Amino acid sequence: MPSDMKDAVADDVDWNRTVARAEEERLAPLLYVVLGAAAPTPLRTRLRSAWLAAERQHLLASKALREIVDAFGTAGIETILLKGPALAAEYYAEPAARPYTDLDVLVRRRDRNSAMEVLERLGYAHGSPGRSLGYELEHAPAAYFVSRDGARLPVDLHWECVAHPGGRRATDLVAEEIWSRAVPAPAWGAAARVPATEDLLVYLAAHLAVHHSLAGMLWQLDVAIVLERHGAALDWDAVTARATRWRAAAALYFALRAVELALGVAAPTWATDRLRPGVMRVALVDRLLRAGGERLVALEYFVGLAMLDRFSDVLGILGSGVVPAPGWLRARYGSRTTIAAYAVHYGRLAGAVARALNLRRERPRVGIS
């Protein structure tokens, strides 16, 4: 940004509020890079500290990621890098401006046991809070590993990328499509790949829509930057066709809508028209988007339902949520008895409904964008 523009922006900034918001959204390093020199001295020091910490993290995490990729390659395991250092280095002029809390790597389902053995040899151990490894292998798209010495970022080992509501077989077919188009990333090792650009956009959009309930400026910014860099060259026919085939069209539509509202970066209208769900659903989610991230997160279960393409998918999710299988419940909540597992599950459901009812009574508030 030119210095005269920075000065003009700085004159109108409520710095205390802006820095607090940036820290909340994990964007303090980015704010330092873009406007840090214009901030008042105490806040500039605070922002610089955040940037230095992020710079150190990126250097250490990049080293650790290359070691993992090399070890996987030695074991004959190919890897697709999702987000993390690879995304930061490719799409951010200053990689430290895009912080992350773990290393997301995708392997094929058939390679996951071998990949876990490699991670164990490298000094990592399973460490998902509240979830057993057995549960993750059977029911989850990934398993979480932490370094035993605590000196390295955790590794989120994925074997699914974009979840398909049709079940495991359909989800694996999606993953194989993504593998078939993955692009070599030699900067990270001979076994490293990154998703093709169109696949990356759908993945990042689904991640924002499903895992973060459309909230979080960091994840919105990822989508916006991919759109800004590749928007004119993207094969939008392929993007819309893949999202529809993967039953992620609504998730992509609403993610693109969230990015347009928050950051002013828009996809082609004809492409979003292809993805657009029903009028009532669009109106409901649009209202939530305008109300702000806090409301979206509080209603995450219901936002998740709105991201599904088909009514049959909604019924399936509702059915499994209201009357889940006993084995799934015991594995999910680590309970010895089915009765205890059901008690925990229905307690969580009641909490979700209570939050929704409470928010409905509140007057809608417009969030800062």
Shape field: globular
The secondary-structure element order is HHHHEHEHEHEEHEEHHHHHHHHHHH
* Mean pLDDT over all positions: 88
Strand content: 5-15%
Strand ordering within the main sheet: 3-4-5-2-1-7-6
Q: Give me the number of helical elements.
A: 19
User: What fraction, in percent, of the residue positions are helical?
Assistant: 55-70%
Task: Please give the alpha-carbon distance between the first and last residues.
Answer: 20 Å
Largest sheet: 7 strands, mixed
Radius of gyration: 21 Å
List the helices and strands and how they pair.
Layout: H1 3-11, H2 15-24, H3 28-35, H4 41-74, E1 79-82, H5 84-91, E2 103-106, H6 112-121, E3 124-126, H7 133-139, E4 142-147, E5 155-158, H8 168-181, E6 183-184, E7 192-194, H9 197-211, H10 217-230, H11 236-245, H12 249-263, H13 269-275, H14 279-291, H15 293-298, H16 300-306, H17 311-322, H18 326-333, H19 338-361
Parallel strand pairs: 1-7, 2-5
Antiparallel strand pairs: 1-2, 3-4, 4-5, 6-7
Describe this structure in words.
Helix content is 63%, strand content 7%. It is built from 19 helices and seven strands. It has a seven-stranded mixed β-sheet with strand order 3-4-5-2-1-7-6. Helix 10 crosses helix 12 and helix 11 runs parallel beside helix 13. The radius of gyration is 21 Å and the shape is globular. It starts with a helix and ends in an 8-residue tail after the last helix. The relative contact order is 0.08.
